[in-house]
Prior knowledge:
Blueprint: H1 6-26, E1 32-33, E2 40-41, E3 58-64, E4 72-77, E5 82-83, H2 88-97, E6 124-131, E7 134-141, H3 145-153
Antiparallel strand pairs: 1-2, 3-4, 3-6, 4-5, 6-7
Amino acid sequence: MFQVTPLRRLAVTACAAVIASAVVGLVPTSGYAGTAGTAVSLLAPPPVRDEDRVSDDHLTVTVRHAGGRADGTFEVYCHPGRGNHPDVGRACRAVDRNTRWGREAFAPVPDGGVCTMRYGGPATAHVTGRWAGRPVDATYDRSDGCQIERWDRLVPLLPDLRPAVAAR
């Protein structure tokens, strides 16, 4: 049978007293506290003002040699979406779609992969900023099949340069 020694009883009582005093210290004596007639709820955080809302998701996309209006530097802010990108909403959704836990949305093509020797044109892109709390500094080109696939995953953040399929 389990025997309780005086020393063990003392240790258990001391632990219980510490836990009880910590819990009592967290519970307010009333629902409100304030001075001079102002009431501030201790049970809820203060409301967030619009100017205090900071979107961490901001990207600068610079595209070269894609042709036409696709070339240029575009700002994209997500959550909420805004900026001078031609399609901010869809650009944010493209990055959201490629954001997975444990996988970097802007990761380069892994070394040692087998890629088709397909050339997708001279277009390049450079994406910088912050996404999901992490810094972004990624370059893109269309020099082989793996690089083309990596670019196409982020369309329309990056311009759609896939050949148009002929209508039947």
